[in-house]
């Protein structure tokens, strides 16, 4: 997913869940900031680099792919963008090394989605936004894994777009190129993906790189053969998946606002969405690569307020200008805490499953937050310090 859904659509979901305009903006800004918070950004503002939630292309090109480097990559991408669907999945006739990677395949409505949402309960709107990014990405990024792996994430020449035609669909073979400066062209059916690399652990084989940005476009419907799928074709219906993601976000945020609420999988707030379903479906199915303008217009009709453009620089400036005692209370300070908690939780769950692809993880005794021990920032935060802000 990209700005149109993580920022504007998340704002709409939060408002439909009962949040105020200000709360909805905070949740949406946090959800989008997950795609911005790199080690380079944190280093520039003096924040803890362990709180990085994404990596720049240049960072990826310079990343080590030795065991320690692969753990760093996996901790980021599996925690925030490719949440594993089943850490205990079974697969016959495969070795432990393959099975560990297979178990990191992203999917929806898994136990880790519950853990992600419940982790931010009573922790404020910034933390809620981080969780909404992770939840939404399970729908867009399902069937890909957040660790470099040719045997899991590769695709082949069998890749077709399904274009609506009458009461059905017309198949059109997708043409990929490897020029990152080349814009995707939905009209011509030409898209950019990562270059094939036979190295199992090449960063080119991370996530949905081999499928390009197709999972990130709401309007896309396509079918392909995943490397892990045993020659069984997978059909991806993004408009349907994105609608499920939207309704699930509304349900999740509403559950977080309820006293004594709890989040359950396979629940969607279709009742709150029903009056606007036709409008949302029109936004999701319109064929273009960026739906920001439509989501923004819809959100402004919902709330009657102007939705400002996403401003990552404002977030950084506030943090830089705050003194040491104030930094944790800034937007970025709260984001850092939420990001460390999410990464720590997911790393711990993967480690406890017997899988070392995200590295070793130990519990922080007495602090109620399990995670890798070098996340010292977590040790400074009392459980429940940042409560949900209600206006």
Mean pLDDT: 90
> How do the strands of the widest beta sheet line up side by side?
2-1-5-6
User: What class do helices, strands and sheet pairing give?
Assistant: alpha+beta
Low-confidence stretches: 382-391
- Main pleated sheet: 4 strands, antiparallel
Strand content: 5-15%
Proportion in helices: 40-55%
Instruction: List the helices and strands in order.
Output: HHHHHHHHHEEEEEEHHHHHHEEH
User: Termini, distance in Å?
Assistant: 30 Å
Number of strands: 8
Shape: globular
- Counting structural domains, the number is 2
What does this structure look like?
By secondary structure, the chain is of the alpha+beta class. The protein has 2 domains: 3-144 and 240-379, no CATH class; 150-238, no CATH class. 44% of the residues lie in helices and 10% in strands. It has 16 helices and 8 strands. The strands form 3 sheets. It has a 4-stranded antiparallel sheet with strand order 2-1-5-6. It has a two-stranded parallel ribbon with strand order 3-4. Strands 7-8 form a two-stranded antiparallel ribbon. Helix 1 (3-16) crosses helix 10 (238-257), helix 2 packs across helix 8 and helix 8 crosses helix 15. It is globular and about 50 Å long. The two termini are 30 Å apart. 47% of the residues are buried.
SSE layout and pairing:
Elements: H1 3-16, H2 21-33, H3 39-45, H4 57-62, H5 67-80, H6 96-102, H7 111-119, H8 125-140, H9 150-153, E1 155-165, E2 168-173, E3 175-177, E4 190-192, E5 221-226, E6 234-237, H10 238-257, H11 270-273, H12 277-285, H13 292-303, H14 312-321, H15 331-352, E7 362-364, E8 369-371, H16 376-379
Parallel strand pairs: 3-4
Antiparallel strand pairs: 1-2, 1-5, 5-6, 7-8
Helix pairs in contact: 1-2, 1-10, 1-13, 2-8, 5-15, 7-8, 7-15, 8-10, 8-15, 10-12
């Amino acid at each position: 997913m990209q700005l149109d859904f993580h920022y504007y659509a998340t704002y709409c979901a939060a408002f439909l869940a009962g949040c105020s305009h200000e709360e909805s903006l905070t949740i949406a800004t946090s959800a989008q900031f997950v795609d911005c918070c790199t080690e380079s950004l944190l280093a520039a503002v003096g924040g803890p680099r362990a709180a990085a939630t994404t990596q720049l292309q240049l960072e990826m090109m310079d990343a080590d792919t030795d065991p320690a480097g692969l753990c760093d990559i996996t901790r980021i991408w599996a925690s925030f963008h490719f949440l594993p669907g089943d850490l205990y999945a079974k697969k016959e006739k495969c070795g432990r090394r393959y099975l560990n990677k297979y178990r990191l395949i992203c999917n929806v409505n898994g136990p880790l989605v519950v853990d992600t949402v419940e982790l931010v309960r009573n922790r404020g709107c910034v933390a809620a936004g981080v969780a909404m990014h992770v939840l939404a990405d399970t729908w867009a990024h399902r069937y890909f894994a957040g660790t470099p792996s040719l045997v899991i994430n590769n695709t082949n020449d069998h890749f077709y777009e399904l274009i609506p035609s009458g009461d059905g669909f017309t198949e059109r073979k997708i043409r990929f190129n490897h020029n990152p400066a080349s814009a995707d062209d939905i009209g011509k059916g030409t898209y950019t993906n990562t270059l094939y690399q036979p190295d199992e652990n090449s960063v080119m084989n991370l996530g949905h790189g081999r499928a390009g940005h197709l999972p990130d476009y709401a309007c896309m419907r396509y079918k392909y053969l995943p490397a892990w799928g045993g020659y069984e074709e997978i059909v991806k219906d993004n408009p349907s998946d994105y609608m499920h993601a939207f309704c699930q976000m509304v349900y999740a945020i509403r559950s977080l606002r309820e006293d004594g609420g709890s989040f359950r999988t396979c629940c969607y707030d279709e009742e709150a969405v029903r009056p606007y379903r036709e409008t949302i479906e029109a936004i999701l199915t319109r064929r273009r690569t960026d739906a920001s303008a439509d989501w923004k217009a819809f959100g402004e009709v919902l709330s009657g307020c102007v939705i400002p453009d996403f401003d990552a620089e404002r977030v950084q400036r506030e943090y830089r200008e705050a003194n040491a005692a104030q930094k944790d209370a800034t937007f970025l300070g709260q984001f850092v805490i939420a990001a460390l908690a999410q990464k720590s939780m997911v790393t711990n769950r993967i480690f406890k499953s017997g899988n070392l692809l995200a590295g070793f993880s130990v519990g922080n005794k007495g602090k109620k937050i399990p995670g890798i021990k070098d996340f010292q920032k977590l040790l400074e935060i009392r459980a429940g310090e940042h409560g949900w802000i209600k206006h």
